[in-house]
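**Entry details**
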Amino acid sequence: RDGRFVALGSNLTPFVLVYQWTSTGFGPKVADPATLPAGAGNGVAWSPDGKFIAVAHSGAPNISVYPWTGSGFGTKIANPGVLPVGNGLCTAWTRANDYIIVGSQTGLMNAYPWNGAFGAREQPASQVPAQPNKVAFNYDDSYLGVAHNTTPFITVYNWSAGFGAKATAPASLPPSTGNGIAWHL
């Protein structure tokens, strides 16, 4: 992890783009993956160890993960045995690098154990009202925050190697759609 690359999800093919980054700005675009995501790249996340890049996208399998060699995309990792339900909108890894989350258009949060490949999907958390736009784990992976399209616009789950109880919504709700979420470090 050295900040030498910046990734972007896109509505048009190739759906994920990675550029080299230098102290003076953008460098050349990295070659596209051999197997492209199936549709619009709605969310992109690097694994905390920098060895993988995940793309939540429209169209089955709704999530694509590639090894990252430090200079480009490797061969796409095999799809999860049970795919995320609905188009993938956002994705995040636990900081411990042992789970990957995929938020889907149906409002479900899909969690997969991760050890260089997808483990068996855990029971999705179905309490997010609609369309998660961004997901993020806190600094010690004890909470998963979700920004989404309907009230209360932000939902937080306890996390301990899987979904725990949903936290109480804030007393003063956000006024509209939650588009992003980040935890103070």
Summary: The first strand starts at residue 5 and ends at 9. The mean pLDDT is 93.
